[in-house]
Specification:
This protein is α/β, with parallel strands linked by helices and 295 residues long. Among the domains are: 135 residues, P-loop containing nucleotide triphosphate hydrolases (Rossmann fold, 3-Layer(aba) Sandwich); 42 residues, no CATH class. 37% of the residues lie in helices and 21% in strands. The protein contains ten helices and ten strands. The strands form two sheets. A six-stranded mixed beta sheet has the order 6-7-8-3-9-10, sandwiched between helices. The longest helix is centred in the middle third of the chain and has 18 residues. The protein is globular.
């Protein structure tokens, strides 16, 4: 960690659910990592690894069973530990977030401008004339001003994401959370959304946490990457560390953990994630026998 304190500290977070038979299911199992001010951290992993659950814990939608998530934001004053915060304090925290949901999550009965204005109308005390100016500014940032009076049904998938991003920016958040921002988009549109995210990060000096399983997007936007597997942090490091594993000959990789990461990053069919003969080693990995340095 550098001289500056992290914006987000995720500390040994455990999240369990109960199945239909009443049995506890551990979805997050001791997740620990930090997010530095102004950086973009990509959280990745396969389906069912815990990405979405982690995002819901980060935005205080889910309460954790063990551990804590601590925020250090200018708009909050003192650090806020989510596990012990009351609802009023959590609502203060949520106003410091911007969230781009996977579908854009626009209200279909409202125009683009009305969707972007909604957080300002609900959570600020500015005059309607000022709201209109702020909506114009946010739509300009995401290059959607020409579409301000359209309904969501008139927008393409990429335009919906841009409009959702303008709404996420409405209250000038300190942190932006992205839930699968490339999902459902063609490669060209996906790359354009990635470039927009990078541009906004630079212009606004905002901290970003991106949940995705789209590797092309992940490697374009990430400063650091967190790989989850079965509810644990398999590895966290700079993008260059993951690029080195991705581009390596798997025969040269010295650990089962590295080979597992290589398989995931390259989307290959053979490897520790899928080989029946490798499952015993894989299970050891997940249980921590081989994970002590990366958890």
């Amino acid at each position: 960690m550098g001289a500056m304190q992290p914006v987000i500290s995720v500390q040994n977070v455990v999240k369990r659910f109960v199945d239909h038979k009443g049995n506890p299911i551990t979805v997050l199992d001791g997740v620990t990592f930090e997010v530095e001010p102004g950086e973009t951290v990509v959280v990745m992993g396969g389906s069912g690894c815990g990405k979405s659950t982690l995002l819901n814990c980060l935005i205080a939608e889910y309460a954790v069973n063990q551990g804590d998530i601590v925020y250090r934001l200018k708009g909050l004053g003192q650090p806020l530990a989510v596990a012990s915060a009351g609802e009023a304090r959590l609502n203060e925290l949520r106003k410091r977030f911007g969230i781009l949901f996977q579908s854009g999550a626009l209200f279909n009965s409202m125009t683009v401008a009305e969707n972007v204005a909604l957080p300002l109308m609900e959570h600020s005390y500015v005059d309607a004339s000022v709201v209109d100016i702020m909506v114009t500014m946010k739509l300009q940032l995401v290059r959607m001003l020409a579409h301000r009076d359209k309904m969501p049904a008139q927008l393409s998938g990429g335009q919906k994401k841009r409009a959702g991003l303008a709404r996420a920016l409405a209250l000038d958040p300190e942190i932006l959370f992205y839930d699968e921002p490339s999902a459902g988009l063609d490669p060209v549109t996906s790359a354009a959304i990635d470039e927009l995210m990078i541009d906004l990060s630079k212009k606004l000096s905002v901290t970003s946490v991106v949940v995705t399983h789209e590797m092309d997007s992940a490697f374009r936007i990430a400063d650091r990457m967190v790989m989850l597997e079965r509810g644990r942090v398999l590895r966290m490091g700079p993008r260059s560390e993951f690029e080195k594993i991705r581009d390596a000959d798997p025969v040269t990789l010295g650990s089962n953990e590295d080979r597992l990461i290589h398989q995931f990053l390259n989307g290959t069919s053979g490897g520790p994630l899928t080989d029946a003969d490798g499952m015993s080693e894989y299970e050891k990995l997940i249980q921590g026998d081989l994970l002590s340095s990366g958890a």
